Amino acid sequence: MQGIWTTERIREAEGKLFAVTPDGELMRRASFGLATHLAGFLAERTGGVAGRRVVLLVGSGDNGGDALWAGAFLRRRSVAVTAVLLKPEKAHARGLAALRKAGGRVVSVEDSPQWIDKADVVVDGIVGISGKGPLRPDAAELIKHVRAPIVAVDLPSGVDPDTGAVDGPYVTATLTVTFGAPKPVHALAPQQCGDIVLVDIGLRPELGEPDLHRLELTDLADLWPIPGAGDDKYTQGVVGIAAGSATYPGAAVLASGSAVHATAGMVRYAGPAADVVRGRWPEIVATGSITDAGRVQAWVVGPGIGTGSEGREVLRHILGQGVPVCADADATTIIAQHPDVLDARDPDTPLVLTPHAGEYERLMGARPGADRVKAARDAAKKYSAVVLLKGHCTVIAAPDGRVAVNTPRGSWLATAGSGDVLTGLIGSLLAAGLDPWLAAAAGAQVHSLAGALAADGVPTSASGLVDAIPGALKLVRDTAGDSGVEVIELPVN
Ligand SMILES: NC(=O)C1=CN([C@@H]2O[C@H](COP(=O)(O)OP(=O)(O)OC[C@H]3O[C@@H](n4cnc5c(N)ncnc54)[C@H](OP(=O)(O)O)[C@@H]3O)[C@@H](O)[C@H]2O)[C@@H](O)CC1
Ligand SMILES: [K+]
């Protein structure tokens, strides 16, 4: 699992490391790594390094210092380096002296457009982890005219380092070179960061437990249930699906199909769309009523069940079964409007809620706001449930404070019925006995992998997502070295 640390934790760790490291050493490590990646970027983009033109946008702190020192290192490789000082009186003094000594040019904001126009790469050293709010007007004006690709130092300026939120002008980078450890912005603002590389400056031993987590493909491969020699359809977990209606059977078909593909366990369906579900997925045991559904190890409830009294009774019945529940869509709205349905639940029974921003508002009385990690944590605590907050980046919080972030590849999941597919995946993993936080995080990640595979550069549908689940799981297992098949590069946009 990849760890992610908030800027407060990064600063604490940096403080400890500073105390035992020679003066300037950390910035030297950071800026040397930055220069190396800049040279690689130039070579890849322009076919060479010497004689290429790099413009540094330099703010008033150490982020600008990193840029200036990297500029000095690039001069050794005969790169033409021009630094634009946004606040000359506050520019990092030693970095500036080093760049000047190495033959770098230093220009004012007013004189900078002619250099920016001719740049092969522009380096964003405007602001780093001490950044607050959007780009200020002078920097925003410069960024507006940049045509060259931008490499961000540590993070794209104008994007909040801890929430990834933007509230005005910001930098959109092609590459972000970060130092020491990933910060929340890197997981929560992928569109602004572009590709991300990490330069090791020796911080890791000082960091302690991460604040946020990101599942890696190897984690998925380790935790995804695969039948063993002694398994049968029951031992791998039976998931029950209560979704859809006679008029709108789509949600039932999608959630059920997703569960069929997710694991080798059995799927039961209970509800008014039984005939349609049986017709589409003959392997499903379908019945018209929740009360004669048979035994399951976890329930999926909500998509398309309506928010009236019938839906309410279905939800109440399921919450009282003493097995893990993934409550989605209409079930979320019912819980928000009739919180007493939760009285049917034994508080120790795992519950996963999967709200989008509107459903979150119903549950919590306010929109998630800029700090989506805090928003998910608050809801998880309030409902003693795992809360998967949907958005471009999905945030998954457990009541004990653990948070995972799923950073998708592209925006292909924004399609009707996509949530029904996700809930089917999570339900299957709950039935297989996974920790509910891991089940939700793993479900979200395979969901987005399936999205990227299904889309392959063009929009996809929820049915396409269901069909792509086996391919996504194969990719996961192949990546973990199970079959020795080479890893495929996924399309990003
Ligand atoms: N510490 C270490 O060990 C290492 C640190 N390293 C590097 O240092 C970076 C952190 O440096 P830092 O703390 O000096 O602050 P930094 O982010 O450059 O901001 C400077 C000033 O900018 C201002 N400002 C704020 N918001 C703004 C905005 N929206 N738009 C414009 N300006 C804005 C605000 O000053 P103000 O103008 O408000 O007085 C703020 O104080 C870190 O990201 C990494 O790159 C590496 O070298 C590795 C070792
Ligand atoms: K920056």
UniProtKB/TrEMBL annotation:
UniProt entry tagged with the keyword Lyase: yes
Binding site for AMP: K390, G391, H392, C393, T394, G419
Keyword NADP: yes
Domain of life: Bacteria
GO molecular-function term, one example from the UniProt record: metal ion binding
E.C. number(s) listed in UniProt: 4.2.1.136, 5.1.99.6
Binding site for (6S)-NADPHX: 62-66, 128-134, 154, 251, 304, 356, 420
GO-annotated biological processes: metabolite repair; nicotinamide nucleotide metabolic process
CDD domains: YXKO-related (cd01171)
Domain YjeF N-terminal: 6-209
Physiological role: Bifunctional enzyme that catalyzes the epimerization of the S- and R-forms of NAD(P)HX and the dehydration of the S-form of NAD(P)HX at the expense of ADP, which is converted to AMP. This allows the repair of both epimers of NAD(P)HX, a damaged form of NAD(P)H that is a result of enzymatic or heat-dependent hydration.
Family (UniProt): Belongs to the NnrE/AIBP family. In the N-terminal section; belongs to the NnrE/AIBP family.
Name of the protein: Bifunctional NAD(P)H-hydrate repair enzyme
Top-level taxonomy: Bacteria, Bacillati, Actinomycetota, Actinomycetes, Pseudonocardiales
